[in-house]
UniProtKB/TrEMBL annotation:
InterPro entries: COMT-like, COMT_C, COMT_dimerisation, SAM-dependent_MTases_sf, WH-like_DNA-bd_sf, WH_DNA-bd_sf. One of its GO terms (molecular function) is O-methyltransferase activity. Gene3D superfamilies: Vaccinia Virus protein VP39, Winged helix-like DNA-binding domain superfamily/Winged helix DNA-binding domain. It comes from the Bacteria. Keywords: Methyltransferase, S-adenosyl-L-methionine, Transferase. Pfam families: Dimerisation (PF08100), Methyltransf_2 (PF00891). The active site is at 250 (proton acceptor). This is Methyltransferase. Residues 114-321 form the O-methyltransferase C-terminal domain. GO terms for biological process: methylation.
């Protein structure tokens, strides 16, 4: 009986695992900052060789490389290290699927905000100064290189959503505007697969150069995609058959969400619709993904948090729409809700 009781007694392993997990993420971020995966994409190297090439200290570099190998990001043989397949695909600078821009965003924007989680839980206020003063994206978009890197990663991560919605039946509409559509990746894919549509993006004016560069890289669409610069809380939204709010509403508080939906209603043509997609992972018992997203919104955004589809239905009705949750294959963790405006 004593042995059975001993085996079933709780131990601190799971708690220590959480702490170690946080340190493991720091290893990844440090490796990306020093372009270790990019350097190893050129060929295998020992810790001494790599440290010498990129100006690091050998002993801790060996510890870092060994740790990254245990995490599955490197492979080790006979004292040399090479990238694993996943690192080679997503952590080598300059490759199409490089996630370094998002990791830089985590390091520079999200992680410092998360350091103040205890304070935000007490005050309900974000730790991100830009959010406190107005728009959480102001500091992010102030640096052109950081902006491009961040948007590269966002386009990669959101590509399945654009692919899924490009297969949606758009035959009843002739135009759409992607609100908060950044540099137009979503709009480009929708128009490419639905050539009868006229597409546009509405976002902050500093993003227009990034939009122009990205459109040039992607190539022409059947009809050119246009960019409208503005602040969606201050400036009129462009008129269209459809206004799309993708991963936008969860960044803002409830009053701001209703305001945006009312502004969308005013801008839409009669018979038009607002398309909203978000994880919609709120509620009293959110998933781990929903809980993490909600706390991230708490510390980084201006009142943002996750919400449920039922809550969104209520805000859409308040704004004048008739709401409907629509099943779309391929949306994975996201939900699409359409709010329809009367003819």
């Amino acid at each position: 009986m004593a042995d059975v009781a001993h085996e079933s007694a709780p131990n601190p392993g799971p708690i220590m695992g959480l702490i170690l997990g946080a340190w493991q993420s720091r290893m990844l971020l440090a490796a990306v900052e020093h372009d270790i995966f990019t350097e190893l994409s050129k060929g295998a190297a020992t810790a001494a060789e790599l440290a010498g090439r990129i100006g690091l200290v050998e002993r801790p570099t060996n510890d870092l490389l060994a740790g990254l190998a245990h995490l599955g990001l490197l492979e080790s043989a006979d004292g040399t290290f090479t990238n694993s397949a996943v690192a080679d695909a997503f952590l080598v600078r300059g490759r199409p699927a490089y996630l370094g821009g998002y990791l830089h965003f985590c390091e520079q924007e999200l992680n410092p905000a998360w350091n103040g989680l205890a304070d935000s839980l007490r005050t309900g206020r974000p730790q991100n100064r830009a959010a406190v003063e107005g728009n959480p994206y102001d500091t992010l978009y102030a640096d052109a290189d950081a902006t491009d890197g961040f948007l590269d990663s966002m386009d990669l991560l959101n590509a399945p959503i654009a692919a899924a919605l490009s297969r949606f039946d758009w035959s009843g509409y002739t135009s759409f505007v992607d609100i908060g559509g950044a540099r137009g990746n979503f709009a480009h894919q929708i128009v490419t697969h639905n050539p009868h549509l006229k597409g546009a993006v509405f976002d902050l004016p500093p993003l227009e150069p990034a939009f122009r560069r990205h459109m040039d890289r992607l190539g022409d669409t059947p009809t050119p995609i246009t960019f409208h610069g503005g602040d969606f809380f201050k400036d009129d939204l462009p008129a269209a058959d459809v206004l799309v709010f993708g991963h936008v509403l969860h960044n803002w508080g409830v009053d701001d969400r209703v305001t945006l939906l009312k502004r969308a209603y005013d801008a839409l043509k009669p018979g038009g619709a607002v398309f909203v997609y978000d994880p919609m992972a709120g509620g009293q018992q959110p998933s781990m993904h929903g809980a993490l997203a909600g706390l991230t919104m708490l510390v980084w955004s201006r009142g943002g948090h996750e919400y449920t589809a039922d809550e969104l239905h209520g805000w859409l009705r308040e704004a004048g729409f008739w709401p409907e949750t629509v099943e779309v294959d391929g949306l994975h963790d996201d939900v699409l809700v359409i709010g329809r405006k009367a003819e």
